Amino acid sequence: MPAPFAPWQLSGESLVGLAAARRSWPTLPWGLQPLPGPSLVVAVAFATSPVGPYLELAIGEPARLGLRPGWCITTMVVDSAASRLGGRLNWGFPKELGTLVWRSDGPDRELHWVERNIVVRGHASGLPLPVLVPVRTLQRRSDGPVVVPGRLLGRGRVGLVEVEVPEGDELALLAGRHPGMHVAGMRFIMRPARHPVGLASTLRAPLRAPEPALSWGSPGRLAQR
After folding, report:
1. What is the distance between the alpha carbons of residues 224 and 170, in angstroms, rounded to a whole number?
2. What CATH homologous superfamily does 8-204 map to?
3. Calpha distance 68→129 (Å, rounded)
């Protein structure tokens, strides 16, 4: 059965960390330009979604599409084939399948990506505060660059997020302790992708990109995974 069309409404909990700026620019899809700033590390346990519960680990880089700033998701692993398909076709997220293990112990949370032995763990402290954050990601589908609007609501507690990455892995520069937050009672809305038009407005893109759903690098060079 094909994955549902956008928008998606999801709920669960997440760890969100801001890792210190890399020493070199990551590779972004053609048409997007890097911006200075920290990388985004997000580990999520979705309890509900249009494709059921699943786990996800995402790495985002600050980028711009024209004058629009946002996050470009450059690495994303999930443990649900339906989520992988929907993420690629709806928004151009570079989702791949992997083995993910989520652990919860009091204020501590941990997500382990088994194949690459990458661990994201966090310890929340302090009083929970309401969180309402607009989210904008910038991706590239096979039909061109798209802006993906979204919104996150929940109860956030600040803390540290620790990332463990084996030496030699391409994500090794993210290793270490970083400021972050644990978001409980999370409700996340991913809206349909939009094609950029002009300086400030966007028009709705086709709900689905034709296969292959990802385009990376120069025109005509398609991403694979």
Report:
1. 17
2. Acetoacetate decarboxylase-like (2.40.400.10)
3. 29
Q: How many CB atoms lie within 10 A of CB 114?
A: 12
Classify residue 24 as left (phi > 0), alpha (psi -120 to 50) or beta.
beta
The answer to whether the peptide bond before residue 7 is cis (omega within 30 degrees of 0) is yes
Read off the tokens for 177: 């302790």
pTM > 0.85: yes
Residues across the chain:
225
Sign of CA dihedral 148, 149, 154, 156: positive
User: What is the residue-level pLDDT of the chain in tens, covering all 225 positions?
Assistant: 578 999 999 999 999 999 986 666 668 998 899 999 999 999 999 999 999 999 999 999 999 998 899 999 999 999 999 999 999 999 999 999 999 999 999 999 999 999 999 999 998 888 899 999 999 999 999 889 999 999 999 999 999 999 999 999 999 999 999 999 999 999 999 999 998 876 555 666 777 777 667 766 554 444 433
Q: Domain ranges in the chain?
A: 8-204
Count Cβ neighbours within 10 Å for each residue of 119-137 and write b for 16 or more, e otherwise.
bbbbbbeeeeeebeeebeb
